[in-house]
Every structure is written in structure tokens, then in C-alpha cells.
Design goal:
This protein has one domain. It contains eight helices and two strands; from the N terminus they run ααβααααβαα. The protein is globular. The longest helix has 28 residues. The protein is mainly alpha-helical.
């Protein structure tokens, strides 16, 4: 169960979600498939995943290590609720920077709207959870699975064709991660359900209704 928690660290979830949608066939319900992640050129897929990896994994990960060295947090998992505010706000800041980066760099190069809406929804979700964290503890792993599931469901809802495996992957990952957090006594059932439900709803609506960017 501990392995599951490490494999599906919240910082990895946006990368997993994008990779799943980029490499499993689907057809977007838009003219010329403008918002299809699957139909992106191979080099664009790799470039986008690398940018997300740097901003969503490397930068926040190095920040967590720095905070540990300064004794601001006691562990990389940030189990202590009182230690979570600063890491969450910093991670939300990285999401906002990523969103603004793609927005300002778009020029004449069209990218699927999810490249913009995913970091924006991440910023909104993490900011909300940082505020909620002041009053009660919520599972960040569950939040991560909510981001993955919310994006995949929004993408499928916008598609005229999609592989059913997309939804099954999201459901299985969510089930494994939530079960592992409860089994390891890291969170209560309510904490994982609130974390998953809250992030999934926010991410779904932002990604579903975000307009196509030209």
C-alpha cells in the first residue's frame, strides 16, 4: 500500500492524466479536433509533458526538500496539517505560473484548451484546499486523484468518441489510492472523500467549460 502512495504522489497526477489522454485514442467534439490531446504532434506531446513535469513535479519537489532542510516541514509527505499551508500555497503558485506561461506563449500556435485549463484548475483547487486546511485535514493524495479523474471525465464529456478504458483507468487509480490512504491510517474515509470529491468537481467544471483558445 505504501508503494501505491509513492507511485501516485499528488504531484505526478497531472502528468499521468495528460499522458493517458495523449496516448489513448479519442475524438473531440470540435471542428478539426482543435482540442484533441491525442492528435497533437509527437514532439508537442513530449515538450508539453516535460514542461508540466518541471513545473508540477521538479519545482514543487525541490521546494519541499528545501522546506525540509529549513525544518519548516518535518516530512516530504507533509502529514502534519499545520505544516501544509506554505507548501500548498507555493504549489498553487507554480500552477498559476504554468497557466500564465502557456497563455502568454500561445502566439499563433494553437494548443488544446486542456493545456491551459489544467494548471488553472490546479491553482483553483490547491488554493481552496490551502484555505480548508486551516480548519481541517484533507487527503492530498485524494485531491490528486480528483484532479486526474476530473480532467479525464471532462475530456470524455467533450468527446464524440473515447475509449472506455479512459474512465476505467481513472476509477481504478482512484480506488487504489483512496483505499491505500485509509489502510495506512493516513486519513479517515471522510477526509479522502472530501479531498477527491472537491477536487474532481472543480477540475471537471473548469476543464469542461474552459473555452477553446486561439
Amino acid at each position: 500500500m505504501q508503494i501505491i502512495s509513492w507511485v501516485f504522489v499528488p504531484l505526478f497526477m497531472p502528468i499521468y492524466a495528460l499522458a493517458i489522454l495523449m496516448y489513448i485514442p479519442s475524438v473531440e467534439d470540435f471542428i478539426l479536433n482543435d482540442d484533441s490531446l491525442y492528435h497533437l504532434a509527437k514532439e508537442n506531446k513530449i515538450a508539453i509533458l516535460l514542461i508540466f513535469f518541471v513545473c508540477s513535479v521538479v519545482a514543487p519537489g525541490l521546494t519541499l526538500l528545501m522546506l525540509m532542510s529549513k525544518k519548516i516541514i518535518s516530512s516530504i509527505e507533509i502529514d502534519n496539517r499545520k505544516e501544509r499551508l506554505i507548501p500548498l500555497l507555493i504549489t498553487a503558485g507554480y500552477c498559476l505560473m504554468l497557466y500564465l506561461f502557456f497563455l502568454f506563449m500561445r502566439n499563433d500556435n494553437h494548443l488544446p484548451k486542456y493545456i491551459y485549463s489544467l494548471p488553472l484548475s490546479g491553482f483553483m483547487t490547491i488554493s481552496l484546499f490551502a484555505w480548508i486546511n486551516l480548519y481541517t485535514k484533507i487527503s492530498l493524495h485524494a485531491c490528486g486523484t480528483g484532479i486526474l479523474t476530473g480532467l479525464i471525465f471532462a475530456y470524455c464529456a467533450n468527446s464524440i468518441y473515447f475509449s472506455f478504458s479512459l474512465l476505467m483507468i481513472a476509477v481504478f487509480i482512484t480506488g487504489f489510492v483512496l483505499a491505500s490512504r485509509i489502510y495506512l491510517n493516513k486519513h479517515t474515509l471522510a477526509q479522502v472523500l472530501y479531498g477527491f470529491g472537491g477536487s474532481c468537481i472543480i477540475v471537471f467544471f473548469i476543464n469542461y467549460f474552459y473555452p477553446t483558445v486561439y
